[in-house]
Design a protein that fits this description.
alpha+beta, 5-stranded antiparallel sheet, about 35% strand, elongated
């Protein structure tokens, strides 16, 4: 058999195999095509209408649809707002072919309208032809505006975004006023909102991010305009009035929304807390003394109605509590209120021994689980020590018993600011320069003397006569003159925290607590870890009944870290020189350890210098904050005299300050004493008797 004969036999066999192989695939593909919906093109006429006008939505199906045809209308999922006016209507269209036969098409029409303006989504359709294919349409949009002087305009689409429309008494509900479905991002130019009656309604500072959605191939933006906190004090139905927004030269107004408020469970009514919370409690001072004031501190953290919850007072046998101070660190944004709130309760142990303070349970209603959660009570126990000899009466009375730090304390090693003295950097040079090996021992022996000389710069007799005069004037009861003498000593040694502590006590004795608070904070700013300086600012704040204070940052004296750098660099240089002549594992390990020591000292030095350079201050008289640094700007919040603040900026004779809870505003520069100021405490007028 030649090749030609074999070819004719192979071809039919190959065709048969191909048919059998392709048949199931072809059958499966047809089945897939019959089950997959075919595109259905819809027509929207017109594409922009006025509110109440009708819009025609039509489509054609290349089949004669009888009553057995199945047409489904699926409502829009993202942009509701259209309602069906009439339809469907069916018209049959006949098309004659070249062979004289006719085919039938069905045209289906619907008429919709909208009672409100905005961007609306046309419903999608699904048509199932009996014994035929399935057709499905894509989404489409229509813009609904309003007529103004016969001109069709499109106002902003404004709406209240409610996380839910049913809440409980006391629950914080953040309401976000949004400009919705905009085809471009516009700057919010103004918001007009009327507070609902009978509820707490406060504007929050934070806003949500701009969100976007894609509908019918068009990208639309949702722009938050404002956030308000809604809290209802009693059950019932409340209404949030319509609100107006102006953006991009256009106006818009929202609809009124209703919010149903349910009563809280009885167990939560003692606290009224709704949200998610944690609680921590402790004795503020672990050392309790008989006859002196002690403080129990309770901190509540979480997300919920933090500004409005009530904290049950602690209890103790034969103890009387008073709420001494309350501090808040709370933010309000689209998530609601979140942060922490600290309650401090003062009591006086009457005798030595143990004292037990019972912290009551703290029930709250979880807005997530819709259940009552109870933070169980706790008992704090402490031992009351005998009263020190200087303790007499209450904390307020302690101010009158405090005496200046002794001269030995003033002459001790002080904060010198070594990093800011150029000559101190010479201490880094000797050993790193690579002196001869024979001179290394001499240099190492001389270094302690160099360090001691640097440390004791402030311990000379330069201010001894002035100090003696200051103490003599204190003993004589001339407190203003004594403070002036301490100030003269501080003029020569402006980083001596003990001198400022003594100056503060002189101000206390003359009754000028505002200046005393400034000086005591300045002393603590210079020496934040000195226990002798830590108590005085709190006593004065209690006397002045001040809250929302900026705390003095704690840090290690950068002078110690600077000396550590000097020692570490020189010691590492010694080890390096020795390693040049003799390889030793001990020297290698020592080099690694000293390198790590230098890095740690450098970090501590940087942190200390940064903390010490923070510009803090004390308000020297009651003043109102202004939103802009202009004398003509209106007053909006009063800052009491003696308030500790952060100084953030200065402009045109004004300072931008921030209090302990983050409230910012501008005040005249002369109303704030800066802790870094080197002039306010030098003037004679600063030390005149009141």
């Amino acid at each position: 058999m030649d090749f030609r004969q074999r070819r004719y036999r192979i071809v039919p066999a190959g065709l048969v195999i191909a048919v059998f192989c392709l048949f199931p695939v072809t059958g499966q593909t047809a089945a897939d095509q019959s089950s997959a919906p075919l595109p259905l093109v819809i027509s929207v006429t017109p594409e922009a209408v006025g509110a109440g006008d009708q819009v025609l939505v039509s489509f054609e199906v290349p089949h004669q649809l009888t009553d057995s045809a199945y047409i489904t209308e699926r409502p829009p999922q993202k942009l509701p707002g259209l309602y069906l006016v009439k339809g469907p209507y069916r018209n049959y269209l006949y098309d004659r072919g070249e062979d004289g036969t006719y085919t039938v098409r069905t045209k289906v029409r619907y008429y919709y309208a909208s009672r409100s303006t905005g961007v609306k989504e046309i419903p999608t359709y699904r048509v199932a032809v009996p014994d035929g294919p399935v057709y499905e349409s894509a989404a489409a949009l229509v813009k609904v505006g309003e007529y103004s002087r016969r001109v069709l305009t499109f106002p902003l689409e404004v709406a209240w975004d409610l996380p839910k429309d049913t809440v409980y008494v006391g629950e914080t509900l953040p309401l976000v006023l949004k400009v919705q479905n905009q085809d471009e991002i516009s700057l919010i130019e103004g918001v007009s909102v009327t507070a609902p009656r009978g509820v707490f309604f406060e504007k929050a500072e934070g806003l949500e991010d701009i969100s976007r959605v894609t509908v019918a191939g068009v990208r639309l933006y949702h722009i938050p305009a404002a956030v308000y906190m809604f809290i209802a004090p009693s059950p019932g139905r409340y209404f949030v009035p319509n609100a107006g927004v102006k953006a991009g030269g256009r106006d818009g107004e929202s609809r009124t929304v209703a919010i149903d408020v349910l009563p809280l469970p009885d167990r939560v009514r003692t606290t009224g807390a709704v949200g998610t919370f944690t609680r921590h409690e402790r004795f503020l001072d672990p050392q309790l003394y008989a006859g002196s004031e002690a403080v129990v501190e309770i901190t509540v953290k979480g997300n919920g109605n933090l500004p409005f919850l009530a904290m049950p007072s602690p209890e103790g046998q034969d103890l009387v509590f008073s709420q001494a101070k309350e501090e808040l660190s709370i933010q309000a944004d689209s998530r609601g209120y979140h942060g922490e709130r600290t309650f401090r309760y003062a009591f006086t142990p009457g005798k030595e021994g143990s004292v037990r303070v019972q912290i009551p349970e703290f029930p709250y209603f979880s807005d997530k689980t819709q259940k009552v959660v109870v933070l169980e009570g706790r008992t704090l126990t402490a031992r009351v020590l005998p009263a020190p000899s200087f303790v007499r009466g209450t904390e307020a009375d302690l101010l009158e018993t405090l005496v200046p730090l002794p001269a030995e304390k003033v002459r001790s090693v002080q904060a010198l600011g070594l990093a800011g003295i150029p000559s101190t950097y010479l201490a880094f040079l000797p050993l790193p320069l690579g002196f001869a090996v024979l001179l290394i021992l001499r240099i190492r022996k001389a270094l302690p003397g160099v360090f001691l000389l640097v440390l004791m710069v402030s311990a000379g007799d330069g201010f001894s006569p002035v100090l003696e005069q200051a103490y003599d004037l204190w003993d004589a009861g001339s407190f203003a003159q004594s403070g002036h003498a301490f100030a003269q000593a501080a003029d020569a040694f402006p980083r001596n925290g003990a001198l400022f502590y003594n100056m503060a006590l002189c101000k206390v004795r003359t009754g000028n607590f505002s200046d005393a608070l400034y000086l005591s904070r300045k002393a603590l700013h210079l020496r934040p870890r000195d226990p002798d300086l830590q108590r005085l600012p709190g006593l004065i704040e209690q006397r002045m009944e001040l809250v929302h204070q900026v705390e003095i940052p704690g840090y290690i004296n950068p002078d110690y870290a600077f000396l550590g750098l000097i020692i570490g660099v020189n010691a590492l240089a010694v080890i390096g020189i020795l390693l040049l002549f003799r390889k030793n594992i001990v020297l290698t390990i020592s080099a690694v350890l000293f390198s790590a020591f230098i890095i740690i000292a450098g970090v501590i030095e940087y942190q200390g210098v940064t903390a010490a350079s923070r510009d803090l201050g004390t308000v020297n008289r009651a003043v109102h904050l202004k939103r802009i640094p202009k004398e003509s700007a209106g007053d909006w919040l009063e800052v009491p005299e003696g308030t500790g603040v952060r100084i953030l900026e200065d402009a045109d004779g004004f300072l931008l300050i921030e209090n302990g809870i983050g409230t910012r505003g501008w005040v005249p520069a002369e109303t704030v004493f800066s802790h870094n100021d080197l002039t306010s405490w030098k003037t004679d007028g600063f030390w005149q008797d009141p």
